[in-house]
Design goal:
This protein is of the alpha/beta class and about 325 residues long. Helix content is about 45%, strand content about 15%. The protein is built from 11 helices and 8 strands.
Length: about 325
Amino acid sequence: MTDKTAILLLQMGGPDSLDAVEPFLLNLFSDRDIIRLGPAFFQPVLARWIARRRAPKVEAQYEKIGGRSPIRELTSAQARALEEKLGQGFCCFPAMRYWRPSTIDALAAVKKEGISRIFALPLYPHYSRATSGSSFNELRRVLALSGVAFSLSWVESFYQHPLYVAALASTLEEGLGFFPEGEEVTLLFSAHSLPVSFIESGDPYLSQVEETVRLVMERFPKTRHQLAFQSKAGPVKWLEPATEETIARLAGEGCRNLLVVPISFVCDHIETLYEIDITYAELARERGIVTFHRSPSLNTSPLFIDCLADLVRTALT
């Protein structure tokens, strides 16, 4: 066995073609860490029905951003950049929760390389049982079935890491450059929503998101800002205010320059490329906002890669 360490980059994943949309949704809605659809034995049936019903609408959304999610390519690019930053002794492998390369695929690649030490690095800055928690559960399940004595360590979140905060602030600064100099710009931090029941049961996601916003805004003390939540689905009560409702309210209050800052996403995906760049941009124009932009996603930002590398080094020393 080699003395290298495998870094598993845990990410949600996304459909890599229009044909992959329905099976991707099936995997998503089958996960009881995200949503519980009746008794466990009946969830696969309901998940299949929901996926089939939602697929045409979601396929149309993906058609508008190139027919697929770029998250696999972007996560692979992050893995290459991180591997280069860490240097010899490390190999990085994307592990997607709901699509390919799956956790099983990633562990097979690790085993093929003869690596027995694994460090799990979730690409979710803010911990939730629906994201990092689900990915950890899947990793433990697959490890138990692998028949290989892997050693496992991990980090749960990095919402307040100085380099993550600096990376976000850098993209925000870049986003502000899209606006005419001297004009007032409102910042709208947009995080992925979560059912309120998760927070009520002790999930730390909301408090961690709020802390990230506070830390970033220490660098922009005179700029007006709001926090809102996007991408809710289903009839349960979700975190509020919703991003689209906040945009409409801000427009009604006279906001004319709006910069949306995607705070819980580290890769471009349908939430940024379709939901923000297309749906929310159109809403903003309709409501009278003159200049609407989104700050760039972190993707392979050098500061963000530095953050990931520091998380690995700190945890393994």
